[in-house]
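Review this chain:
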Amino acid sequence: MLLVTCFILPGCATRVQNVLQPLAAAPRDTNQVPMLVATTRKPSNDPGQLFSGERGTSISINSVTVSLPADTHRKIGEVQWPSRVPPNPEKEFAVIDVAKVESEPRVLQWFRQHRNAKRQVVIFVHGFNNTYADGVFRLAQITHDSGTDATPILFTWPSRGRTFDYLYDKESANYSRRALEDMIIQVAKSPDVEDVTILAHSMGGWLAAEALRGVAMREKSIPAKVKNVVLASPDIDIDVFRRQFVEMGPKRPHFVILTSTHDKALEVSSWLSGGIDRVGGSDLRPYASILSELKVSVIDTSAIASKDPLGHNTFADSPEIVRLLGQRLAGQSLSGGEVTSADRVGAAAANIAGSAARVAVAAPAWVVSGEAREVLKREISPSSGKIVDGEISY
């Protein structure tokens, strides 16, 4: 009951919702983050909301530009939510431009105006209990605070942004799988894109993993341009993730999983899901050496202080982790061939950016017994389809 109470309390706070109406005039001396936003949400008649938490019957695409206060007026990791409409851009996040992107040529035109020299893209998939505005402001914050110049794309699915709608949100993520698959395929096929990183949080991690599985099945493999996938506090049943991972096929991108054994939100999710561990709430460090062979890195954030009382948003609100993401987003020290000196040290000693975040990339082999290693390898290998002792491996 204590965990349920902790889960609910943050949703009780009231705040201004209709914050997406662009300012009449663009502010000066602020930071600006332009992004492309694709959504499966139902459009709203309120220009300050743009899209509701209900499910739409099409994929809508908009370009949105967000203004952030000057760095002297904010702290890394903070989303300064507007206290009124219109917001005060000197102290709060504000939207300065919204436009429909009505055709594929317009998408290409927008991207060519905002791409970096390496043609890198970051696709962000938000988690449970997020409105359209939540996703927009969070991606703007991550993009600016991490220092990445990769082109930001938000995929926002129909979350109602209400604590008690967990099951509705979960079905909405399921509803949006094909749309995210389509977007990943289209982005990867674009000649204007060379490097794709997918950053997904919480329930969005399940959606991203499921979409990648679908892409692999449709395209026979995940496109080579999709080089990195970062799953932050993924709310994924640990058995389901094993199946997703296997079914993505052998040509998988490099995965980074941010976990914490102190994530109270994932404790509640586990309780709601029959007591099955969630990937983001599990201690995966003992399996680091095996996971490394599969191009999976584990970053344990359990010791990191978070502004979130649930310990669920550390990936974005902890300055240490945001800086780490900045080093690793969009191909920066994330590809399988690029291993940092800290990575080589292993889980027992690696200390990234002077923080308590531990990168479990090359843990000593003795951490896991030979038998356990063989079992895990067998479980994450494709099935031969043969019957052995009355069973077919799955």
User: Anything to note?
Assistant: The mean pLDDT is 82.
